[in-house]
Design brief:
Elements lengths: L16 H4 L9 H10 L6 H14 L5 H11 L7 H8 L4 H10 L5 H10 L2 H8 L6 H10 L2 H9 L5 H9 L3 H13 L5 H6 L6 H22 L11 H13 L2 H12 L3 H9 L4 H10 L3 H12 L5 H13 L2 H15 L38 H7 L1
Helix pairs in contact: 2-3, 2-4, 4-6, 5-6, 6-8, 7-8, 7-9, 8-10, 9-11, 14-21, 16-17, 18-20, 18-21, 19-20
Amino acid sequence: MKHEPFLLEAEPHSPDHSRVRPAPAAGDGLLLSAVELFVSIEKHDRKEISVFQELSENLLSTTPDRDRRRIACLLARHPDTPDNILARLAGDRDPLTAYPVLRHAPAIPEDILIMQAERGPDSLRRAIADRASLSESLVRTLAAQGGPDIIRMLMEREDVSLEGQLLAAVENRGEIMAELGGDLAARGALSADRLMSNFLHLTRELKAEAIACAELASLVEMASQGPGRAPRPVFKAHLLDMLQKSAMTGSASQFATDLAFTLGLPEATAARMLTEDGGETLAIAFKALGFNGARTASLLIRLIGETHTLDEIRRLVQIASTISDGAARLMVRRWVASETLGLPAGTSAPVYQDAEQKKPVQTMAPVRETVPEETGTVADFKKRA
């Protein structure tokens, strides 16, 4: 079927030239008008597409946002839109311009999709997550950068593997685990090792499940080691005294630094234990360190008493008194492997020196069994170490 070209080509010196191709002024809507004419025709020949592509390439960068948004909506689904124009619109810094192209255009270069998934906002990530197919690298980027709604969209896709693609990206994101941990657990995606490794980010119900997993794993570990003498306390009494003094007399930030050094955790993780958690991680850490019930209670009151009720403190003391030494220490080892080393769940990474071990493990804090009985602070101990 014949049709009039979408853009008349007048000779430069013809009487119609000034009427057909006026010199464009900034913001005069020339490109939008050309696009509206282009999409009004279902099929174009190569020459028309080439002329339209050249015009778009020259004017797109100077076209105002309002026009570019309309242009993107018009061109996103038109079959004759040049690929490079779609790519430029998909990579636009204006989210409202990029959205319809990311959502509907069938072929967008992978690097642009990843760039926009990293840049956001979630409205753009939602458009990308709803595309017909997603590469593994794109899924990982969306999972690492997107909010809970984006993760839910990915979880519902049949072509996305929870275990293989999603969990590695979201398991250390506290805000995601707090909101979606229950759903992930219900789908069987959170193994016992993952529950223990991500304890700091779990809901109260999932934390109880993680503690049960730690108790079972500790029993299995003890059975595999066979009968023998129970290990001596890992931390000397004077080191615990110094840590308690730090809690009672110093600032919360200083105590977080000292606790991080003692356990071998990052300082940021220790700080989150004091400010962003329900207190369960602190209670378990104090049990792993060897504090008794009375000292644990006084430490919890001093450190988080202003933000937790007395009933909550009692609950935390109960957790510390009921969890076994082995389970508490195993939990902390999992935290170190996950938070410090970035190892996958289930990787063995001891944080303490075993009672019979002669050489320190490289991934833990300095050897504590051989420290002489001296007084001072944890900071002094770090200087000596």
